[in-house]
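Notes on consecutive records. When two proteins share a document, each keeps its own sequence and its own C-alpha cell line. Never mix them. Below: protein one.
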Amino acid sequence: MTAADYAEFSNYAVASGTIVLALAFLAHLAELLFVRQEAVVPASVAVGGGDTAVAVAESDDDVEPRSAVLSRIGIALTVVAAGLLVAGVVSRAMASNRVPWGNMYEFGLTGVSIALVVYLVLVRITSVQWIAPIVTGFGLAILGLAWSAYVPAGPLVPALHSYWLVIHVAAVMIAGALFLVGASASLLYLLKERAELRGNVGPILRRVPAIAAMDRLAYRTHAVGFVLWTFGALIAGPIWAHYAWGRYWGWDPKEVWAFITWVVYAGYLHARATAGWRGRRAAIIALIGFATFLFSYYGVNIFVPGLHSYAK
C-alpha cells in the first residue's frame, strides 16, 4: 500500500469508528431509559394481584432486563469503535511515516483512542461500565472537534522531530484518559450525594456504586494520572522543549496551563492526604482540575497564541 492508500484507509476507519461510537453512546442512553422503565414494572405487575401477579413475576425472572442487554451492546460497540480508531491512528502514522500527533486532528483522534482503550481495560478490571455514557459522549465531542480541525497527512514541523515528543505526548494522553475516568466518577459522586441528601435517589443513580466506592476510584485514577502528568508534562515536555527551542522552560501558554493543571491536581491529592478532604470537596477540585486539563489540551492551542500554535 502507498502512503495515499494508508491515508485513505485511516479516514475511512476513523469515520467508521466515529459512527460506531455514536451508536454505542445511543445504546447507553437507551439503557438509561429502560432502567427508569424497569424500575416501575414491579408496581404495575402487582396491580393484577393474586395468582396472576405471581405468575407474571415468575415468568419475568427468566427474562434478562433490556437495560442489561443494551449495556452489553454498548460495551461491544465501544470495543469495535476503539478498534477502528486505533486502526485509523496506526494507518495515519504509516501514511505520514511518523507518530500521529502532530496537529489538533491527530491529537484528538489519538487521545480518544487511548481514552477508550484505558476505559475498556478498567471495565475489564474494575467494572466501571457505569460511566459509559460520559466516556462515549465525551469521546464523540472530542472526535467532532478533531474532524473540524482535519488536515491531510503530512510531515512534521522541525520542532516535532524528537523521540522525546513521543514520550511526552504518550504520557500526557494516558494521564488524560485517567483524568477522564476520575472526573466521571467525581461528577456521578456529586449527583448521587445530592440525591441522597434530598432522599430522592432515582433508579439510574441507584445503579452506580456507593459514593464511597466512587470516591476511592476517583482518588486512585487521579493519583496514577498525576504521576504520568508530572512525568509527561513537567519532565519529558521540558526536555523536548530544550531540544526544540534551546530552553527547558519559557512560560509559553501551553507550559503555563500544563503547570496550572499540575498545581490543581497536586492540591487535590495533598488535600486528601493531609486535610482529609474527601467526598464532595475533593470531587469539586477534581472537576476543576479536569477543566484546566481540557483547556491545556485544546483551549490554549485555539485561543492563546504561542510556540505550540503549530499544532492547530
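Protein two starts on the next line and is unrelated to protein one.
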Amino acid sequence: MRFLVFAIPVAILALSSPLAMAEDTPRTLSVHMRDTTFAKRVGTFLGKDERPDWLKRATESEPVGVTMDGKPYTVLLACKQHDCRNHQFVLMFDDKNMYGLRYETHDNSPKEELTWFNIGGGPESIDGKTILYAAITGSLYNHPKAFQAPNGQ
C-alpha cells in the first residue's frame, strides 16, 4: 500500500515535468526560431525586408501540415498580439524550400497589403499563394484536410 501512495505523486510529478510538457509544446514559429540553423535560414529567407517588431512577441498558431506539388510542408502563422486581424505573418516550409506572406491592413479597411516572400514561377506561384492566404483568412485552420493530398499522391 505504501508503494501505491508514493507512486501516484511521482507519476503526477513526472507528467508535469518540463520534459513531459516539452513534448506537448506545439512547434510554433518562436519554438522553431530557437534552433539557430532554422533562425539563420529564416534570416536569409527574409533578406533585407524589415521584420516587424511585433513578430518577437507574436501570438502564434500550432503548425499545420499541407501538401504542395505532392510534397509535405509545414505552415506556421504568427500575428500581432491584440491586433491579429490587422498584422499577420505566415511561413510555409520543408527541408529545402521556404515561402511566406506578410499581411497588413487597418480595421474595417478593404485595402490589404500583401508582401510575398520567395514566390517564383513554380507551384508556389498559385498553390503556395493559395495556402499562405488561406492561413491568413483562417480557412487553412478550419479545413486543414482540404490542403493535404491523399496518401500516395
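For the record: Residues 1-21 have pLDDT under 50 and may be disordered.
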